[in-house]
Amino acid sequence: MAEGERFVPEETPVAFSYAGSTHAVMMATPADLEDFAYGFSLTEGIIDDPAEIETVEIVQEDKGIDLQIHLADAQNDALTARRRHMAGPVGCGLCGIESIEQAVRVTPSVRSSPLTLSEDEVVEAVRLLNGQQPLHMATRAVHGAGFYVPGAGLIAVREDVGRHNALDKLAGAARRAGHAGAAGAVVVTSRVSVEMVQKTAIVGSPFIIAISAPTALAIRTAQEAGMTLIALVRGDEFEIFTGAERIVSGPARRAGNG
Fold first, then answer.
1. Spatial CA neighbour of 68 closest among 7, 110, 15
2. C-alpha radius of gyration, the chain, whole number
């Protein structure tokens, strides 16, 4: 037996607090926390636009981090009313889901998005993501999520020990930078759960591309939302589970080529 050193990722409780009241607590990698605050607020339907958050204060506590998120008055009032009608406690403490009703919430349709990708672009999106995950390269223990825009490549990548967290961080980063979800594809290193599909649809992207496999509910939800779900991308091969009509022939588009 030989002694050695190894990098491992940090994992810490991260609380989302609105108007001083804790809404949910996630176990997460303590990085890109402002993006996390914005993305979680977007994908959980607390806000519709980043401008509806006035400030985010990152408060380091003894055993975790509290993201104190200050909303505009209208959004704060709407969240207060939402809490009054909740059947149980605010937040489950792990997954951020407040009730059975929220877990099976209606997923927004992305059917109207005109975005298409070529087979080469699907492969390129995953290849680029595999090369832009420094924390994963160091630890082999985190998930990655990227936003791929045809002709521009990956315009944002975020990592986290939780696959949902990585996607929330990505959503926050992309929207804060002014990128519309309908303009690109969400690319993830994890399996595709129903919540991953829901969050992708809320972001507005008509594509979710994954290295691993989807669940049956994720496939049904993607189909109902009009989303293209591609998974099990291995080299030049992948499987299309829904929305095959958005995959077109032709090479990957390059920046400046339309």
1. 15
2. 18
DSSP 8-state symbol, 212: S
Q: What number of other Cβ atoms are within 10 A of residue 253's Cβ?
A: 18
Percent pLDDT > 70 in the chain is 90
Q: Which of 207, 159, 156 is nearest to 183 (CA)?
A: 207
Report which of 37, 20, 22 is spatially closest to residue 165, judged by C-alpha positions.
37
d(CA 129, CA 46): 29
- Per-position DSSP letters for 112-147, written without gaps between them: T----EEHHHHHHHHHHHHTS-HHHHHHS--EEEEE
* Sole residue written with tokens 């380091």: 60
Identify the structural domains of the chain with CATH numbers, from first to last.
12-103 (3.10.20.10), 117-248 (3.40.140.10)
CA 100 to chain centre: 21
Taking a C-beta distance cutoff of 8 angstroms, is the pair 208, 186 a contact?
yes
Q: Give the span between the Cα atoms of 116 and 90, in whole angstroms.
A: 39
Asked if 208 contacts 222 with a C-beta cutoff of 8 angstroms, the reply is yes
With 0-12 CB in 10 A as exposed, 13-18 as middle and 19+ as buried, what is 99? middle
Q: Is the pTM of this model over 0.85?
A: yes
Among 27, 72, 78, 92, the active-site one is 92
| Segment 26-58, tens digit of pLDDT | 999 999 999 999 999 999 999 999 999 999 999
Residue 92 designated active-site: yes
Strands 153-160, 143-149: pairing kind: antiparallel
- Quote the Cα angle for 51-52-55, to 5°: 85
